[in-house]
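in:
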């Protein structure tokens, strides 16, 4: 597999796309003047403790207070660990209103809710993630070779001893650490210790809510986090951004420097590689499958639902085989759509019912295999007898749809409008209310063109009868700027 990163730097928006073998896998977008704050560390103050929720609200300087759950407090999750084990104190015994503490953002504000916070701080470098208040050191799950995992743990122990840092915090060896030398590891440790000292100094000087550490901007962050042997090219369409990225790579990711390229045009970078088309398609509900079937993906406040349909696919053998092949392809396509659309939380997939138990098992296996390639943690909960599969995928900020779109002002996000026929009946009722008992000569209906067309066509007879009953002339006027549900009645 070969990977390419495309970086599109605009005046107020940065967009990054990750392509694997030429196919778009991930899209990341960061917008100003309010960039993502995940990973930022703040000095904050508790504003309210909620024992019923086992959580507290913390003012960290954001537009809204952030939510800190008891499980995110250093020192335990506030739950009993088993028989005979004393539970950690509940949140009302651990925090109080007005208390100062240092927090890190784990999730951006989402759908009117404040940011999610933790006191389990973590600082990332090229090869390591440093957790100053933890004790458990580990190796990234993406490094599967047991020999390499053992080597890295021994190397880290040696590096910590050499730097005099043994027993001070915990470290996770990131995927990029595979094959690292002792010298590089020690350099990374020194960088993280300087960074942590800077955070501590700012925290001591802070008198109120204050930013202590800001994570890298998106285009530098991807170079740090996605640098790996399979990454062949990083294309940047802005020359100033290209120079900044080159300087960053020369200092922190030197092996990536030769893979950086400036894309001067004339074709826009995202157009040239089909990313714009993928973004537009990812905003729609329907995803067509190569076999002729399709998916329908709907996001709600509670969950995301996915419906699998055979569509025009009739297969070559029998109905069971057609359904099986459609579900197999749907599993693979869906895994990519989850990443592309940045869908998180509860995801329920309604596969087409399969009578064959072996077919159900194969579809489950196919879905599990493709989900293992997803860098975001996903929990697979099996398939029910009705063909329903429930997943939970860790949220990584807003979904692509929520980031790029707003609720429709006409349907308020419902996705449906009342039909022209329904609106015409509303008009008849309103005409009766308006015309009854009034000394008027004429009533004028102002409505959307589709509604006026219906009133002049199939509903013309009903309208004429109503005019006779009311003893009024009823005139019609189409208003192109009216939504289908909106109408007015003018009295003359």
């Amino acid at each position: 597999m070969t990977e390419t990163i495309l970086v599109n730097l605009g005046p107020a928006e940065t967009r990054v796309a990750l392509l694997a073998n030429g196919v778009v896998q991930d899209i990341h977008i960061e917008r100003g003047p309010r960039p993502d704050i995940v990973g930022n560390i703040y000095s904050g103050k508790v504003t309210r403790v909620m024992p019923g929720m086992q959580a507290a609200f913390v003012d960290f300087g954001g537009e809204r207070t952030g939510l800190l759950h008891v499980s995110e407090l250093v020192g335990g999750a506030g739950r009993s660990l088993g028989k005979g084990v004393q539970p950690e104190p509940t949140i009302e015994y651990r925090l109080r209103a007005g208390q100062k503490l240092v927090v890190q953002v784990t999730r951006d504000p989402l759908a009117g809710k404040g940011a999610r916070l933790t006191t389990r701080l973590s600082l990332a470098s090229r090869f390591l993630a440093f957790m100053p208040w933890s004790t458990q050191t580990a190796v990234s799950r993406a490094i599967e070779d047991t020999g390499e995992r053992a080597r890295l743990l021994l190397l880290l122990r040696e590096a910590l001893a050499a730097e005099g840092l043994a027993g001070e915090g915990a470290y996770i060896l990131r995927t990029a650490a595979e094959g690292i030398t002792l010298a590089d590891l020690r350099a990374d440790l020194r960088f993280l210790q300087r960074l942590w000292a800077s955070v501590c100094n700012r925290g001591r000087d802070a008198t109120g809510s204050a930013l202590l550490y800001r994570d890298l901007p998106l285009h530098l962050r991807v170079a740090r986090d996605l640098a790996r042997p399979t990454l062949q090219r990083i294309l940047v369409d802005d020359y100033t951004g290209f120079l900044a990225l080159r300087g960053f790579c020369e200092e922190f990711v030197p092996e990536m420097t030769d893979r950086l390229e400036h894309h001067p045009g004339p074709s826009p970078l995202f157009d040239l590689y089909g990313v714009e088309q993928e973004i537009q398609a990812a905003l729609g509900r329907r995803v067509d499958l190569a076999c002729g079937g399709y998916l329908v993906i709907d996001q709600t406040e509670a969950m995301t639902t996915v419906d699998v349909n055979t569509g025009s696919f009739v297969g070559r053998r029998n109905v069971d085989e057609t359904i099986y092949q459609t579900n197999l392809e749907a599993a693979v396509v869906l895994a990519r759509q989850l990443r592309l659309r940045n869908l998180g939380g509860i995801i329920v997939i309604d596969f087409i019912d399969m009578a064959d138990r072996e077919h159900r098992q194969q579809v489950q296996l196919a879905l599990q295999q493709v989900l293992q390639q997803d860098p975001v943690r996903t929990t697979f909960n099996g398939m029910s007898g009705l063909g329903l599969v429930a997943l939970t995928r860790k949220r990584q900020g807003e979904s692509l749809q929520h980031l790029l779109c707003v609720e429709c002002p006409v349907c308020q996000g419902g996705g449906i409008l009342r039909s022209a026929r329904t609106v015409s009946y509303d008009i008849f009722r309103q005409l009766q209310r308006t015309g009854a008992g009034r000394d008027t000569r004429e009533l004028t209906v102002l409505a959307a063109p589709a509604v006026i067309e219906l009133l002049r066509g199939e509903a013309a007879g009903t309208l004429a009868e109503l005019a006779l009953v009311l003893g009024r002339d009823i005139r019609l006027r189409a208003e192109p700027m009216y939504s289908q549900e909106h109408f007015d009645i003018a009295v003359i």
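note: The mean pLDDT is 89.
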